[in-house]
Amino acid sequence: MLPHLDSAHNLARWLVGNEQDAEDAVQDSYLRALTYFDSFHGEDGRAWLLAIVRHTCYAQLRKKVQHGLQHSEALAASLELEMVEDHSPDPEALALRNSSRIAIERALAQLPPEFREALVLREMEGMSYREIARITDVPVGTVMSRLARGRKRLQDMLTAKVRKETT
Amino acid sequence: MNCREVEPLLGAYLDGELDLLHSLDIEAHLGRCELCAKSLEELRQTGFAVSAAPRYRASKQLRARLVHPASEQRRVFAPVNLRWAAVAAGFLLAAVTVWKFVPPPDQATGRMERSVVDNHVRSLLANHLLDVQSADRQTIQPWFSGKLDYAPEVEDISAHGFRLLGGRLDYLEGRPVAALVYQRAQHVVNVFVWPATGQPDRPAQAHSVEGYQVVGWRAKGMNWWAVSDLSPASLEEMPLCPCFMPPHPALQARNLRNIIRPASD
Fold first, then answer.
1. Quick one: average pLDDT of B110-114?
2. Mutate which of A5, A23, A37, A123 to test chain B, going by most B C-beta atoms within 10 A?
């Protein structure tokens, strides 16, 4: 299952927001995967593994929220510093397409996790709606609506940033 | 269809998740509605934006700990490393189980598949994926014919989501072969092609080797091997492969019913 390690790590990193927690989550997930390997009868090992990773991340996040730390706030705050230095020499030329990596990263980090995970799985991992539905344990219709709403919010955040910079 | 019906389906249309009939309806609407065409373009750009965000790969340390947990434990002795010992034991057990109870399907094919996977992994590890970098098959094909005693057929299948990155010379079955490199989302697909002198055509056979998907077939006098860490379903969507079939209409209809079911979010 090691070929899926990058996918597992990427999902974890986007869900929990920092490297240390992501590595912990991946480590726990592989342990769990081994423990429950007997229960795996499907064909798509990647979806099965990512479902475990997702489950582990959410458990980790729930623990953190109990300690009063909102992960998406923390994730956004960790990027805040870099944002200050993100001055484009030509703000007018900034369009959605050319939004800086940092701006996109930050906007994505601010999305609610259920929208973020759908976008990460779709746009970065190239998964089908059916695979995403299997991983996130919701109907395909929900995947579609989460993707639509996630994209819309992201669009609004990125274009609002462009407007702010151009005025 | 009117704008109100089209709008919620635009994302699924863009992602290629709609059936032919709805796709055609939407295309007809897009042809006459500038507003929806603009929305679609914005969606497309948002998709590009997200794929520009970093894909966090696992660090070398994490990978090393998962692959060689024992050496890690020797270096740093801490209770937490017992977990890695458990992972190691688990992998060993799984490996032994697979080795003992799953007979190799065919010695010759098994060996070939492993070579293909080895070459694929090497191409990614050694940072030597491409010798010629181009999305233009007119550039790649002549490049190969200068290096090999045959010219592989290079197809542009970007419409199906497989972007052509370029080509590379590789070595298989004791001879230099052409490797065509495609990318789907962030996943690399290596396609190895070389002449199958005097051998009959062979239908595609898919196998999973060490978590990689390998599909091999023989057609038009050539050996073809495609390998990737894509899911089996995604690799079979590659139209080069004779196993590629447009999705069955019934499947599409079922998928659509799922899609248009009101979201319980």
1. 83
2. A123
- Within 8 A of B161 by CB-CB distance, chain A residues are 126
Annotate B129-184 with DSSP letters as a single string.
Answer: --SEE-S-HHHHHHHHHTTSSS-------GGGT-EEEEEEEEEETTEEEEEEEEEE
Q: What is the total count of domains within chain B? A: 3
Rounded Cα distance, B52 and B187, in Å: 14
In the listed set B43, B76, B102, which residue is the last one of a domain according to the structure? B102
Q: Average the pLDDT over B41-63 and give the result.
A: 86
- Domain extent at residue B9: 3-55
Helix (H, G, I), strand (E, B) or coil at B76: coil
Q: Are residues B134 and B250 in the same domain?
A: yes
* Token output for B51: 């794929």
Cα(B57)–Cα(B63) distance, rounded to whole angstroms?
A: 10
Mean pLDDT value across residues A28-32 = 86
User: How many other CB atoms sit within 10 Å of the CB of residue B63?
Assistant: 15
Residues A26 and A55 both lie in one domain: yes
**B182, β-bridge pairs:** B164, B189
A52 and A98 belong to one structural domain:
no
Residue A60 scores a pLDDT above 70 = yes
Higher pLDDT, B247 or B138: B138
β pairing state of B202-209 and B187-195: unpaired
From A50, A69, A88, give the residue that closes a domain: A69
Residue of B62, B73, B117, B162 best to disrupt the A interface, most CBs of A under 10 A: B62
Domain interval for residue A133? 71-167
Query: Could you tell me which of B169, B158, B165 has the C-alpha nearest to residue B240?
Result: B158
Q: Is A97 on the interface with B (CB under 8 A)?
A: yes
H-helix or E-strand spanning residue A128: none
Q: Cβ(A28)–Cβ(B62) under 8 Å?
A: no
- The lowest-confidence range among A12-26, A108-122, A149-163, B93-107 is B93-107
Sole residue written with tokens 């060689």: B68
Residues 6+ apart with CB under 8 A from A18: A74, A75, A78
| B202: pLDDT strictly greater than 70 | yes
